[in-house]
């Protein structure tokens, strides 16, 4: 059902539940944070961020992502979700699979177990659509984050938290132009992953030079290294390598050395190792979409809805990026990266 302005009505399910007011939850959380059993010091969550615990009904939220094993980006997503869950008196059930059919099955398992809310990524929206519809039919509130910004509304979802991937790509392309790049190699580590393909499309649109796309398989990093090395050896005119994830950027550093290339490496997304690489000058800059914040907001928004029927964004995406990180500002986030929250 749509509102008069065409936006989907958020969470039209008929589920009934005991609801404690948000004001009580916030007041209790503040009280606990100020007067804890540690003598007034707020209790710390696993992320190292202090927090009290909301006095709202215990709820269970499933977070299902398209995480690729070994990609540290998802550690930041999960830490953000765990931090919000600890604050909100939420039992968090995290699961993931990079293959869309398997991810859809995980969503169905969460529905079958009658969780109170679901946070999901839509890297391959068409494949995930039946699972999203099943959650809606089961009257389970669902939010989308990280992937699927252009598709979540069409699937009847009211809230999205993440980066505008097209805008991020265009911004990267414009930065390449400003940096004086002439030929860029944009590396897609998973074919068919809409966010990654949108990033490269944005780079092409925003960059005034030439862009070539190289597809690799992120599940086999030795193969990625060899493929990038071969490409740089074959085409010495490539002066910039655009990675779409921190592990690929770190691999490209070795490929550059193997090939004897002078190409500059830039990337989307960060992790602690990538922060060190920027400080060392091995990577010139990165686009940060704040994955910790995405995980946090996805869980916290469901808590707000369950306890006070709040929605965030007014039917529009809540953007967490893009922003640039380079040597001019890397020191301001380095300590947080080492703590595992940036």
What does this structure look like?
This protein is α/β, with parallel strands linked by helices and 342 residues long. It has two domains: 59-163 and 290-321, Rossmann fold (3-Layer(aba) Sandwich), CATH 3.40.50; 165-288, Response regulator (Rossmann fold), CATH 3.40.50. The chain has eleven helices and twelve strands. The strands form two sheets. The protein has a six-stranded parallel sheet with strand order 2-1-3-4-5-11, with helices on both faces. It is globular, with a radius of gyration of 21 Å. The two termini are 38 Å apart.
Write the layout of secondary structure elements.
Layout: H1 22-34, E1 59-65, H2 73-88, E2 90-96, H3 100-112, E3 117-120, H4 125-137, E4 142-145, E5 160-163, H5 165-178, E6 183-188, H6 194-206, E7 210-215, H7 221-234, E8 240-243, H8 246-259, E9 264-268, H9 272-280, E10 285-288, H10 291-308, E11 318-321, E12 323-326, H11 331-338
Parallel strand pairs: 1-2, 1-3, 3-4, 4-5, 5-11, 6-7, 6-8, 8-9, 9-10
Antiparallel strand pairs: 10-12
Going by helix content, strand content and strand pairing, the class is alpha/beta
Taken as a percent bin, the fraction of beta residues is: 15-25%
| CATH architecture designation of the largest domain | 3-Layer(aba) Sandwich
Proportion of residues in helical segments: 40-55%
Biggest pleated sheet: 6 strands, parallel
Question: CATH topology of the largest domain, what is it called?
Answer: Rossmann fold
Our measurement of the CA-to-CA distance between the termini, rounded to an integer number of angstroms, reads 38 Å
CATH superfamily heading of the largest domain: Response regulator
Number of helices, where a helix is a run of at least 4 consecutive DSSP H or I residues: 11
Q: Give the H and E element order.
A: HEHEHEHEEHEHEHEHEHEHEEH
Q: What is the arithmetic mean of pLDDT?
A: 87
Query: Tally of extended strands?
Result: 12
Strand order in the sheet with the most strands: 2-1-3-4-5-11
* Count of structural domains: 2
- Determine Rg (CA atoms, Å): 21 Å
């Amino acid at each position: 059902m749509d509102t008069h302005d065409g936006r989907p009505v958020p969470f039209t399910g008929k589920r009934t539940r005991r609801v404690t007011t948000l004001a009580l939850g916030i007041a209790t959380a503040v009280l606990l944070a100020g007067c804890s059993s540690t003598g007034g010091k707020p209790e710390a969550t696993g992320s190292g961020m202090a927090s009290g615990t909301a006095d709202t009904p215990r709820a269970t939220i499933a977070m299902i992502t398209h995480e690729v094993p070994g990609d540290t980006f998802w550690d930041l997503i999960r830490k953000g979700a765990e931090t919000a869950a600890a604050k909100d008196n939420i039992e968090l059930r995290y699961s993931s699979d990079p293959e869309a059919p398997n991810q859809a099955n995980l969503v169905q398992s969460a529905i079958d177990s009658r969780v109170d809310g679901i946070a999901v990524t839509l890297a391959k929206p068409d494949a995930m659509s039946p699972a999203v519809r099943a959650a809606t039919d089961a009257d389970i509130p669902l939010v989308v984050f990280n992937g699927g910004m252009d598709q979540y509304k069409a699937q009847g979802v009211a809230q999205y938290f993440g980066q505008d991937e097209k805008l991020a790509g265009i911004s990267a392309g414009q930065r390449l132009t400003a940096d004086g790049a002439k030929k860029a190699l944009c590396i897609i580590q998973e074919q068919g992953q809409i966010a990654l393909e949108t990033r490269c499309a944005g780079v092409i649109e925003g960059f005034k030079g030439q862009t070539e796309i190289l597809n690799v398989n992120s599940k086999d990093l030795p193969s990625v290294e060899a493929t990038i090395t071969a490409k740089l050896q074959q085409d010495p005119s490539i002066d910039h390598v655009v990675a779409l994830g921190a592990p690929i950027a770190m691999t490209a550093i070795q490929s550059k050395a193997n090939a004897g290339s002078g190409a500059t490496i830039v990337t989307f997304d960060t992790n602690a190792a990538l922060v060190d690489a920027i400080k060392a000058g091995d990577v010139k800059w990165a686009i940060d979409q704040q994955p910790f914040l995405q995980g946090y907001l996805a869980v916290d928004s469901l808590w707000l809805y369950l306890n006070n029927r709040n929605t965030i964004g007014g039917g529009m995406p809540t953007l967490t990026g893009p922003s640039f990180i380079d040597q001019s500002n890397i020191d301001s986030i380095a300590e947080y990266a080492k703590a595992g929250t940036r």
